[in-house]
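FAQ

Q: What does a record look like?
A: Structure on top, sequence underneath. For example:
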């Protein structure tokens, strides 16, 4: 990773819709960017936590959960949610080629709409069940760890398209970005454990891993690899899995 600052900037530009200067970024920066995905995820989760705190002062837990979810949607432009919806729209296709055609279609189908509705409903329901301080800590940890979940797919699977939005990581991920992403994810979990408690974090991580594995079974069984939409789906289901693990612990 020869240009870490620019790789961080590339990760920010790729994962969020909060504008920053991008004139000096090139393909190398986007190839190294996954090393910073968990760090950017922590920042997105912190934005969600701020929205949650604002909602709590206005109307309690349920309003807080809506505000926290809305804040992350605004920060990312619903980037990952769009990937989830596209993946589920494509699942009914008879072939991998047809599935990828459907996933590229900008129109939202019934399966995608249902998946999007359910994932947002689960987020709001789960966050509204968490005590205030646990929710504030859970949002950054879940967003950071779920971005690491997506990075693990990049590191251990293959890119299924000839081109596409995830093309810069089609060759996988280098050792330095992978180590950086892993260490950042571990640090996020360790810091979160000081607030959430080790047992709670362990339950959240186990549930996150279940979500990661089940999502991969779905798309790798159909595509033999991943696309950018698949990475978004992994992030979303991993994130919700973490919240559900916390609820189970409570």
């Amino acid at each position: 990773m020869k240009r870490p600052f620019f790789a961080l900037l590339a990760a920010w530009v790729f994962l969020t819709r909060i504008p920053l200067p991008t004139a000096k970024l090139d393909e190398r920066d986007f190839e190294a960017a996954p090393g910073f995905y968990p760090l950017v995820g922590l920042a997105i989760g912190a934005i969600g936590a701020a929205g949650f705190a604002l909602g709590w002062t206005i109307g309690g837990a349920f309003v807080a959960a809506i505000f926290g979810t809305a804040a992350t949607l605004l920060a990312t432009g619903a980037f990952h949610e769009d990937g989830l919806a596209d993946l589920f729209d494509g699942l009914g296709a008879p072939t991998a080629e047809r599935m990828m055609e459907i996933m590229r279609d900008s129109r939202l189908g019934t399966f995608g709409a249902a998946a999007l509705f359910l994932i947002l409903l689960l987020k709001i329901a789960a966050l509204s069940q968490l005590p205030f301080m646990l929710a504030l800590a859970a949002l950054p940890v879940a967003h950071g760890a779920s971005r690491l979940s997506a990075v693990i797919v990049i590191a251990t699977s293959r890119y299924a398209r000839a081109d596409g939005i995830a093309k810069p990581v089609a060759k996988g991920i280098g050792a330095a970005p992978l180590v950086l992403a892993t260490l950042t994810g571990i640090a996020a979990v360790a810091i979160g454990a000081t607030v959430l408690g080790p047992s709670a974090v362990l339950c959240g991580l186990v549930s996150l891993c279940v979500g990661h594995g089940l999502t991969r079974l779905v798309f790798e069984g159909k595509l033999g690899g991943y696309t950018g939409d698949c990475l978004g789906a992994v992030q979303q289901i991993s994130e919700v899995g973490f919240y559900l693990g916390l609820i189970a612990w409570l």
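Q: Is there anything notable about this one?
A: The mean pLDDT is 93.
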